[in-house]
Amino acid sequence: MDLTSALDRNVMPGGPGYPGGMPQHAADGALVFCLRENGSSHLWRIAEDGSAARALVDGAANVSGLSVAGTSAAIVRSTPDSFGEVVLVDLAEGTTTTLTASSDPGFDLIPAEERRFTISDGTVVTGWLRRDRNATGPLPLLLDVHGGPHNAWNGAADLVHPYHQVLASRGWAILTLNPRGSDGYGDAFFRAVAGGWGVNDANDFLEPIDALVAEGVADPARLAVTGYSYGGFMTCYLTSRDDRFAAAVAGGVVTDLFSMGGTSDMGHFLSAKENGGLPWRDEALISAQSPFTHVDRVTTPTLILHGAEDDRCPVGQAEQWFTALRERDVPARLVL
After folding, report:
1. Helix axis angle, 230-241 relative to 203-214, nearest 10°?
2. pLDDT tens, 137-160?
3. pLDDT at 232 over 60
4. Strand 82-90 and strand 72-79: pairing?
5. Which residue in 87, 89, 251, 299 has a CA-CA distance of 20 to 30 Å to 62?
């Protein structure tokens, strides 16, 4: 059964840290699966003959984990009001029963406002702005960049990133964006960053910030950027091409796409499939995407967080960036 061509959405969980679950059969032969839509993983079912595809859990909910038995499915469902509860779904009726009641986190969750930004080339980028509605005046703003580059943010409460709630409660605005390359917007959008990390998607971050500054939401003198893995890459890429950020926290960084191609456990795949070339052969293409090409332009004080035994994003990526910043007297700290 070919699901992806008709729906133009990813129906597999992707990898560690990606929500969803493997497709499974119900008692009546229907296929139950998770579909990525607008950043969220939703629960769907489709008849055995490929007809009657419909959503069972959608909207602002995000599904992580799926277990099907008979005519029911157990999922973990997070919403804007909940970090996640175990929910039983009746696969015939589509009704849900919440089985757990998580303890009070000790503070009121601040919901995120869904926003859409039209980039100068016409691309529409979805994002979520989380802030205390009672806060006044332009606020300090944190741009948090997701990993992947094919993961995606959504508007549900996020237990993996609780600092979004903490900072918002202390007067910050938190902006999460799904730039081109993010999952949940079709195959063309998913592939739009291939061969152009940073080059193709930097404006998907910078122009929404411009819009929020123009609206009076964000204070242009108090902008910060953070992210892990691809988010760490983009943090370094943006600070090497733009000087607007007052502070940066880069985690699990990718900074030098030349050395990355030969040292990462997925170096060849990332170079060939994601960056569109090979470091020893396609110097100009790789150089344009590599943060290290313009590390000499970085002025943003940077905290680097990195796993010393990270095979995907080798620790040398962090050490190269830290060393270059220190040699140039840019305030920097490295935590391994």
Report:
1. 70
2. 899 999 999 999 999 999 999 989
3. yes
4. antiparallel
5. 251
* Dist. CA 73–CA 89, nearest whole Å: 5
Q: In sequence order, what are the beta bridge partners of 37?
A: 40
What element of type H or E holds 164? helix 163-169
Q: What are the residues whose beta carbons fall under 8 Å from the beta carbon of 110, sequence distance 6 or more?
A: 130, 131, 132, 165, 168, 169
Rg of the chain in Å (alpha carbons): 21
SS percent in the chain: helix, strand, coil, step 5: 25, 30, 45
Domain-wise residue ranges, the chain: 4-98, 112-335
Q: In this structure, which amino acid lies at residue 221?
A: A
Residue 283 CB partners (closer than 8 Å, separation 6+): none
Residue 58 has a CB neighbour count (10 Å cut-off) of: 16
Asked whether 79 and 157 are in contact (CB, 8 A), the reply is yes
User: pLDDT tens for residues 294-311?
Assistant: 999 999 999 999 999 999
Q: How far is CA 78 from CA 106, 192, 209, 223, in A?
A: 17, 29, 27, 29
Task: Please indicate, yes or no, whether the overall pTM of this predicted structure exceeds 0.85.
Answer: yes
Report the distance separating Cα 249 and Cα 169, nearest Å: 20
Whether residue 334 contacts residue 302, with contact meaning beta carbons closer than 8 Å, is answered with: no
For residue 75, which of 43, 35, 38 has the smallest C-alpha distance? 43
Nearest by Cα to 235 from 139, 306, 185, 166: 306
CB 217, CB 138: distance < 8 Å = yes
CATH class entry, domain 112-335: alpha beta
Backbone angles phi, psi at 335, to 5 degrees: -120, 120
